[in-house]
Amino acid sequence: MEELKKEEQPSDLENKCNEYLNGWRRAQADLANYKKDEAKRFEDLIKFSNEKLILDLLNVLDSFELSLKSKAMELNPIFTQLESLLKSRGLEKIKVEINTNFDPNFHEAILNVDSELSSGLIVEEFKSGYILSGKVIRPSQVSISK
Fold first, then answer.
1. Domain 51-145, CATH homologous superfamily name and number
2. pLDDT tens-digit profile of 102-127?
3. If we measure between CA atoms, which residue out of 121, 128, 77 comes closest to residue 99?
4. Which of 45-51's residues contact partners 24+ apart within 8 Å by CB, and which partners?
């Protein structure tokens, strides 16, 4: 049997094997992380793919809401049906209460008004805001006290 050359000693070969094995394990871990990241990205893509459609439908919802406020009660079932449909798709209305703190995460101040209320409190809501699957897609338009 031929004697192994110095560069081919068993300890050197074992080190190379371990190096290759560790590299393979890192590559496997990288692939697993990549798959998780892509699955999350794909899930978000599906979740928010209807965002544009829902934003367009919000204009219809606003018209119905205005009509309901003007006491055109025959539209109430249509408004309820449309609101229910959008809710089933992950849409929820941002609840705005007068005399509560303005939150820029959920509200858009379109007017600052003189008021008896403390500064920075909501005085009136002009347009409803909405959240789609946990993401604010349109903030509520409000006036705040100054």
1. Head domain of nucleotide exchange factor GrpE (2.30.22.10)
2. 999 999 999 999 988 889 999 999 99
3. 121
4. 47/90, 47/133, 48/132, 48/133, 48/135, 50/89, 50/90, 50/132, 51/132, 51/137
